[in-house]
Amino acid sequence: MKKVSKAIINFDDYVERKNTDSRKWSMAGMHEMATYVDDNSIPLWVADMDYKVPTIIIEKLKKRVEHGVFGYSIPSEEYYNSIKYWNKIRNNWEIEKEWIVSTPGVVVGLNFAIKAFTAIGDGIIIQNPVYPPFKSSILNNNRVIVDNSLIDKNGLYFIDFEDLEKKASNPKNKLMIICNPHNPIGKVWTKEDLEKIGEICFRNNVILISDEIHSDLILFGNKFTTIGILNENIINNSIICTSPSKTFNIAGIPVSNIIISNEKLRMEYLNEIIKSGLKPIPSLFGAIAVESCYTLDGLEWLEEVKRNLENNYIYLKDYLKENIPKITCGHLEGTYLAWLDFKKLGYSNQVLNEKLEKEAKLVIDPGEIFGEMGTGFIRLNFACHKKILIETLERLKIVFGK
Ligand SMILES: Cc1ncc(COP(=O)(O)O)c(C=O)c1O
Description:
The protein is α/β, with parallel strands linked by helices. Helices cover 40% and strands 14% of the residues.
């Protein structure tokens, strides 16, 4: 891969995001409990980072903008090669160009999978607490949520395999969607966990969708395993959703790469996309973003971002322990989303949300939007400037530290 420019990021620089049409900073389209948001509120909700992308992305996009003609485009060979390069170097996963199907975002990709591989009324297995669009995608398509809830043992989460086996063996249940690493609990599933899930799905003819959008953001030396390197039976039964959008903070340029090695499944999936009128290729700027992210510069930038995220998380965890020990910080292995347990404070969901929003002026994601198991928790996005994190913690201390 050609080295084009140095990837530089200075975490001391504050990037102003107010009035930049940022969804996070405009606090637009929030959960229904959001009532007391104003100009003094700090946004710590939706999963995007407050950091600038690697310089190389800005340079490549700028160069293309300067050409000035933006007619219909097709992805270049470099686009496909960059995806192959990234997956090989990051995950030791060899993929073929033909396996790559582009959709404008992972959630769009999940919806196509639901339509392609299930019928109205079919059951789809998910693992609560989980990223809310898993649920809404199932419900919006008139399919049925089948919950294989995770087991919470004092803040450490485990999979209930006995329950999964039971649910997978019901012929009404056709699909399972997993999240690896798991949003909102920040768990990176082990190879053994994934093999067990994959085997259960394969044996029971349940197609496995693995949402690996957070897979580059693995922290504290934890090890990510993609479904793509497991055994042939599992791989042939799986749809793997990848994207540079969380890794490089480019969610505003929607692009995701859905990897399907099984030709039959891929054709069914492509057919669903084509039926919708969409082309399974990236937009002009989506392709350029992918090509410039998945490079050596991108790797270097990612290492810096991860170091910064680790520092922020340690700061957050230590601060809470010292100043507000009743708020427990979950065991985070990946993502920049802290799962904080407020149950010891004894507030109802409504009172907790009001205290956070009205008194602390913090805009977070309430735990209950991730499922019933999220009651008493909040999800806090700590991919922000250190001064924002410090201000956040000081506000938490004033409201909850008595
Ligand atoms: C697990 C997970 N999947 C998908 C998405 C959204 O992906 P996209 O914006 O590509 O639809 C998110 C965003 O937070 C996420 O956390």
